[in-house]
User: Which sequence fits this backbone?
C-alpha cells in the first residue's frame, strides 16, 4: 500500500552498506519515531529507476549524502512537508533496533522504498 505522511521531521539518517538511506522521522515533540528508507538504485533500465533516483536526489541535495556508517543526528530536525512510498513490515529491522539510541522506532513498519520526499 502506498502511503503519504505529511508534516514530520527528519531527526537522523545513515547510509547503509546496501546503499539504502535510513531516515528516522519524528513528530514535532520528538515522542514518536518512524523509519523510512530511500533505496539504493536498481539498474537504469528498471521501471522504478527514475522515481527512486528523483527521491534520492531530493534527499541528497537537502541534508546531503553521507558515507556508510553511523547515524548523522540533526540538532535541529528538518521539516518534511511530505514523504511518500510503500508501507512495509521489515522483518530484517525489528522494533527498537534501527536508529540512534533514544530515537529508535517501536515498530518494524516503515516506508520502503520512499518514492517522493519534499522538504520545507
Assistant:
Amino acid at each position: 500500500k502506498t502511503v503519504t505522511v505529511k508534516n514530520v521531521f527528519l531527526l537522523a539518517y545513515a547510509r547503509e552498506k546496501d546503499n539504502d538511506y535510513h531516515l528516522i522521522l519524528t513528530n514535532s515533540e520528538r515522542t514518536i519515531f518512524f523509519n523510512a528508507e530511500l533505496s539504493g538504485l536498481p539498474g537504469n533500465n528498471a521501471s522504478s529507476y527514475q522515481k527512486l533516483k528523483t527521491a534520492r536526489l531530493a534527499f541528497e541535495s537537502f541534508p546531503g549524502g553521507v558515507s556508510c556508517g553511523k547515524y548523522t543526528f540533526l540538532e535541529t530536525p528538518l521539516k518534511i512537508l511530505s514523504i511518500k512510498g510503500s508501507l512495509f513490515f521489515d522483518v530484517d529491522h525489528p522494533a527498537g533496533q534501527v536508529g540512534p539510541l533514544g530515537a529508535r522506532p517501536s515498530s518494524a513498519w516503515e516506508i520502503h522504498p520512499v518514492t517522493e520526499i519534499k522538504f520545507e
